[in-house]
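Notes continue from the previous slide.

Worked example: a multi-chain complex. Inputs as given:
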Amino acid sequence: DADVTQTPRNRITKTGKRIMLECSQTKGHDRMYWYRQDPGLGLRLIYYSFDVKDINKGEISDGYSVSRQAQAKFSLSLESAIPNQTALYFCATSDTGTRPYEQYFGPGTRLTVT
Amino acid sequence: KQEVTQIPAALSVPEGENLVLNCSFTDSAIYNLQWFRQDPGKGLTSLLLIQSSQREQTSGRLNASLDKSSGRSTLYIAASQPGDSATYLCAVSNSGGSNYKLTFGKGTLLTVNP
């Protein structure tokens, strides 16, 4: 089984709809991250969390919110989706253990907003 | 603001060739640097992580070097194979601890032809 899982893997939604992307990990890592990837722009950090009580905005947090329900779960919400949020979304994890901060990525969620 | 550049954007080589991928960053005060591989439509796989105090890391046919003073890293792939075809991403963090965040380059698309 994959260490970092994301659901759904693909989603098509309409403008104005609320949508939640979910991430779960079995690596026991304390840190979790959400990125989006756009062609020509690379990966950009949306939000990151160092534990359940610590949530931080990244480079492009406007229009997004997150919830860290447990150490293993980190959800990303789009309250009112818009077409320019069409992108590939990745969740990642890391810890401060023997390979400090090395990030491990999930398989991604391809989101299309029409 | 840290900026990461990867040159070339795309590279095509015949099987068996040794090759070098380049990564440069504008702020040389980095904490660590990570190289990733991304297959089409999939997540990122961590290849190598170099701490700021290290000069290089090796894994199999891969060798990554770091020259902080010049703001450069290279990923050397020996005896390339068609299975090495993927996008290779470089990412750096300027801080550890609670300020740990990765800034990504846009990647180099590598094609190894049989």
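Summary box: Chain B touches chain A through 23 residues (CB under 8 Å). The two ends of chain B are 41 Å apart (CA to CA).
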